[in-house]
Write a structure and sequence with these properties.
By secondary structure, this protein is of the alpha/beta class. The protein has two domains: about 25-115, Rossmann fold (3-Layer(aba) Sandwich); about 135-265, 3-Layer(aba) Sandwich (Rossmann fold). The chain is about 40% helix and about 15% strand. It contains ten helices and eleven strands. It has helices at about 10-25, 40-55, 70-85, 100-110, 120-130, 135-145, 165-175, 195-200, 250, 265-285, and strands spanning about 5, 30-35, 60-65, 90, 155-160, 185-190, 205, 225-230, 230-235, 240-245, 260. Helix 1 runs parallel beside helix 10 (about 265-285) and helix 6 (about 135-145) packs across helix 7 (about 165-175).
Length: about 290
Amino acid sequence: MTQILTGKPVAQAINDQSRELIHAHDLTPMMKLILVGNDPASMYYVNSIVKQGTKLGIQVECLTLADTVMQDELAGIIIDANNDLQVDGIMLQRPLPSGINARYIEGLISPEKDIDGIHPLNLGKIITEEPCFVPCTAMAVVRLMEFYQIDPAGKHVVILGRSTVVGKPLAMLLLQKQNGSNGTVTVCHSRTADLIRHTVQADILIAAIGKTEYVSAAMIKKDAVLIDVGINKKTKPDGSVTYVGDIDCNDCLDSALAITPVPGGVGSVTTAVLFSNLVQACLSRCV
């Protein structure tokens, strides 16, 4: 029977570790969360972060800016947060409006407060295997695999997607010379020729391409582990809306050894990793 890799117990274990650190060291972590514009998906995620922060006893200061905000104004807000001793971590919700140079703005965030792992210095340290803040979704996949004892060592891992927040950092994490890594990694993307030739070889297939139910049973190896990072809005024939992943779960369910659901999979773990990073940032400041 296919194992369903739900995110709730993984997130709970990570959140329990965060609570223990907060209580053991009497920490008061504070996150500065910056949202630009009114994208519904971004607003939903930001609201969930604020609610989860309250449950953990963590202060989340949410600043919502109009999508007409000037780049210099946003840069000034980031710099002020860097210099604010009360702020332990900064999260800049993406996507940003087209008129803003995202790489420039992300590069302004202090690496020590970059709890979302988007600063070039933190991304570079993944390659050199130095301690750093890692993009939360990429680390969420790693933590989920650890929790369910899915060892990539010696396995062929195929990642669909090459973004700087999931595909690329996740590939580097799974290639590292340490427990929980040592995989043989193939990264596929929109220009990959004969994609199915790669996906059917995967012992572990990780989908992060943002295409609704793209991966079908015909694309996977029998008894592969399927990890779905995508979340896409889907309108049913009756007009109602639901959310699904990049993997057609119903189609793949009988063929896979294990699969993450959407929703209820990687997403909740991502939020837990974000707060874990925040607590670590606060701990580093206080010791």
